[in-house]
Amino acid sequence: MASQQETDQQVNEGAAVDGEGFFVDTEECEARELAHRERGTSRPITVVGNPVLHKECADVTEFDDKLASLIDDMFASQRTAEGVGLAANQIGVDLKVFVYDCPDDEGTRHVGYVVNPVLEELPPEQRVLDDSNEGCLSVPTAYAPLARPDHAVVSGQDMHGNPIKVRGSGYFARCLQHETDHVYGYLYIDRLSKRDRKDALRQMAEGTPRYPVVANG
């Protein structure tokens, strides 16, 4: 029987790609998430105002054990914070990486990660906006409606440097767009009106995070 690490690598590599070249992130979700999380160490979450969240992250150029360990730590941190997505700068690391463990609108679970993500531009005929509420681990306890396309495609690389593509609809599409924004220095509140942004920051100030955070200043 293959070891857990070998199984995890097999699921994340080429065998788990569909006929259109998209990563099949709906299979072996529990095993893959658990493998990453058990190898990783949970870290506190950086919050709005921390400089690392407000600038474009560095491209990943080294596909090594250090990157693999970072991805493991991100899965562990995401689980501690009970999030559905987490970018590297949300644990203070200036690199273009995000992980996710997110359901779509049909309740199907998606688990995976993308290195050096790029959000593909949708043709106008595919841009159906959804103005559901959105929140962020880096803006704890705050929520606001934000219109985003209900379909998303993100391309990037896996931890070995191989090309990877992920697609999602509904809530999962929102997650993919939200996390890609993070690695380019944007929080969801940056896309709100001044009034709604102010309200979100007020919600954050009045709330208490349910997970460890890094205090600013």
Automatic annotation (TrEMBL):
Record's protein name: Peptide deformylase
Keyword Endoplasmic reticulum: no
Annotated family: Belongs to the polypeptide deformylase family.
E.C. numbers: 3.5.1.88
Binding residues annotated for Fe cation, in chain numbering: C136, H178, H182
Cofactor binding summary note: Binds 1 Fe(2+) ion.
Biological function: Removes the formyl group from the N-terminal Met of newly synthesized proteins. Requires at least a dipeptide for an efficient rate of reaction. N-terminal L-methionine is a prerequisite for activity but the enzyme has broad specificity at other positions.
Keyword field: Hydrolase, Iron, Metal-binding, Protein biosynthesis
CDD domains registered for this protein in UniProt: Pep_deformylase
Cofactor(s) this protein requires: Fe(2+)
Organism name: Streptomyces katsurahamanus
HAMAP family documented for this protein: Pep_deformylase
Active site: E179
Organism placement in taxonomy: Bacteria, Bacillati, Actinomycetota, Actinomycetes, Kitasatosporales
GO MF terms held by the record: peptide deformylase activity
Pfam families per UniProt: Pep_deformylase
Catalyzed reactions per annotation: N-terminal N-formyl-L-methionyl-[peptide] + H2O = N-terminal L-methionyl-[peptide] + formate
Keyword Nucleotidyltransferase annotated: no
NCBIfam families listed in its UniProt record: pept_deformyl, PRK00150.1-3
Stored InterPro entries: Peptide_deformylase, Peptide_deformylase_sf
Gene, per the UniProt record: def
Major enzyme class: hydrolase
